[in-house]
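Support case: user asked for a sample of complex input and structure output to validate their parser. Sending the pair below.
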Amino acid sequence: AAGVIQSPRHLIKEKRETATLKCYPIPRHDTVYWYQQGPGQDPQFLISFYEKMQSDKGSIPDRFSAQQFSDYHSELNMSSLELGDSALYFCASSALQRGTEAFFGQGTRLTVV
Amino acid sequence: KQEVTQIPAALSVPEGENLVLNCSFTDSAIYNLQWFRQDPGKGLTSLLLIQSSQREQTSGRLNASLDKSSGRSTLYIAASQPGDSATYLCAVRTSGGNTPLVFGKGTRLSVIA
């Protein structure tokens, strides 16, 4: 079965650079979520989209933005990167008509140096 | 604000033992609850989803129960194996089918051969 695909898997950036993370949800899933997980931490919700419209916003810094495109893939754009942005970034998707079970991608490990 | 607590934070058991992981949440008005497994540096794998109207779900050696009124869920693992070693995360969806999951900090399980 198709899973949530994230790219790239690993990313190394310098401070003050920008990064773009991509997420391809499971086909026919209507909701996409972005989470950030620091070392030894639980996943923290950043932002979500339902049917390509932003639906909920969590602890997402103003330096970050996200959008969902017509083909349902989503991108998380991160600017003015800081050392503290180093983390695992997960994308998840779910479908209202399928019990809303959330499925997570393998994540993008971002390292800011 | 929904808060999710998992006890214990870490657990070490000998192979073959049955064990119980605990999850509690402060707002009992949940939509559903999901248990995940996470291996170090990897993505989250969905184990079980319990809707708010359900009392338990089973998958193989795993059984999850939900007591919404008391704000508690348990994950029971039967006949534990070294391959079960991982961090187990509990997450609740507070309202609506496409609202974000709120995670606990997880229980780190080690099964010793």
